[in-house]
Design goal:
The structure is a single chain. This protein has a single domain, classed as UDP N-Acetylglucosamine Acyltransferase, domain 1. The chain contains three helices and 16 strands. It has helices spanning about 1-20, 65-70, 130-140, and strands at about 25, 30, 35, 45, 50, 55-60, 60, 75, 75-80, 85, 90, 95, 100-105, 110, 115-120, 125-130. The strands form four sheets. It has a six-stranded mixed β-sheet with strand order 2-5-10-13-15-16. By secondary structure, it is of the alpha/beta class. About 20% of the residues lie in helices and about 30% in strands.
């Protein structure tokens, strides 16, 4: 019952944001606790087969600039196909995350991530490409994984 309520709230929230211009692809999985900038939803594009870990935040504005120059900075955020954003990560205004890229948990993405790369940290930096990450994972014991 609790999960049904969560799903209904999530569905309503996403409908509200898409009505405000959010572009949301197919087969997108947004884990619990995600936050998509509601004041500038029209600047956010999430393409097909993107996965968010828990508590991911996407911001399409930076209001701190208002203190300095009297105006809020806006920037389009695009998450390309098949990207993965790890738990509690924040993606800032003006960023594109490339196709098949992975953002590690607790990262702050401040600049564009090219396709097929693994980034992590605050600010996020390149760790390796996804082919190297796959090779590294394949060396781990098979019983380290579940389907």
């Amino acid at each position: 019952m609790l999960q049904q309520i969560r799903n209904l709230k999530k569905k309503r929230y996403l409908e509200k944001l898409t009505n405000r211009g959010l572009s949301l692809g197919k087969d997108v999985y947004l884990n619990d606790g995600f936050f998509l900038d509601p004041s500038h939803a029209e600047l956010i594009t999430i393409e097909d087969k993107v996965v968010f870990g828990p508590s991911v935040t996407i911001l399409a504005h930076d209001a701190s600039t208002k203190k300095v120059i009297g105006k809020t900075l806006l920037g389009k955020v695009t998450i390309k196909k098949n990207a993965f954003i790890g738990a509690r990560s924040t993606v800032l205004a003006g960023v594109t995350i490339g196709e098949n890229s992975i953002v590690g948990a607790n990262s702050t993405v401040t600049k564009d991530i090219p396709p097929d790369e693994v980034w992590a940290g605050s600010p996020a930096k390149k760790i390796m490409d996804t082919a190297s990450y796959k090779a590294k994972l394949e060396k781990l014991p098979k019983d380290s994984f579940v389907d």
